[in-house]
Specification:
heterodimer, A: mainly alpha, Rna Polymerase Sigma Factor, Chain: A, 9 helices, B: mainly alpha, rod-shaped
Chain lengths: ~180, ~170
Amino acid sequence: MTDREILELYHSDKGGEQAFNLIVRQYGKKLYFHLREIVLNHDDADDLLQNTFIKAWNGLPNFRGESGLYTWLYRIATNEALSFLKRERINNKFSLTPYETKLINRLEDDPYFSGEAIQLELQKAVAQLPDKQRAIFSMRYFQEMEYSDIAQILDSNPDAVKASYSVAYKKIEKELRRLF
Amino acid sequence: MDKERKINGDFLENRLLKELPYTLPDGYFSSLEERVRERTFGHKPDGKWGALFRSFKAAAALAASFLIVFGLGYGAIKLTQNKLAKSSELASISKDSTSVFENEAILDSLAAKYGPQNLYFAMTNAAEEDIEILEIEDDSYIEAVQEYLILKSDSYTSLLADEFDDDNK
């Protein structure tokens, strides 16, 4: 079902919940991995995914379709993830362990991580990127999204996104070449 | 062959690195819909009327804020006005009550010019400009002079009494 058809169903009489279930079914997986790439942890990604859908449900009556449903949902999810990381960094302000180190430790202890050593090293390098840059890197590198779509999600411009991705890419490549 | 050894050339463009290295709890996505539904439909969407109600609520809150600010402003203005009115009344009263003292310097100069005992005479024969300066209406100057003399000293009071007696002889 297309986004347009889902939205039509949503606006039809008694179609709201059915349309919403379709949205969860259609976007749940994509949004989960998008969130997990940013927060690098299953439990946090799960919480944020549910928050994203609650916000989407509450925001749907005012959704005018000016951006695509896909972009709108990604924007909610990304904002949720970035706000979460911001709060986490604030909470970690007085800790002796830097937040990036905590992220890496969590990644290493995550029972739901199944990658090879080099994949773990890649994730560790990604974890050291600034939060927004990590979101950009994730969307472009793993999800192969267009710069223009990423820019729309982050309310930025494609050139800025491209520049940020390029910086992140070089940092990670340098780090991995040093290790392997 | 070890997967890591496959990585060469354009390092990061290797497909292995682009694979997501995550697993999930069993049945995570199949139960996701149910879990989201449980949490979400506890929060019923507002719909059009709900959105309208929320807009109205926001507008009502804004209007209430304006009313409170207006009320506070109005109250402050009213209080200030009352105070101003009272203070102008007081100013007027004080002006009246100090009329003798305001005229004191002029009466002093007249008394010095004509002598205190001749003050009544002096007043009646004072130059027009002196009377004008006194700001005393018509014949009320006698009362002003009496007040002046009583206030000035006992000798003036006795002088006044003597003159009174002389007049009534």
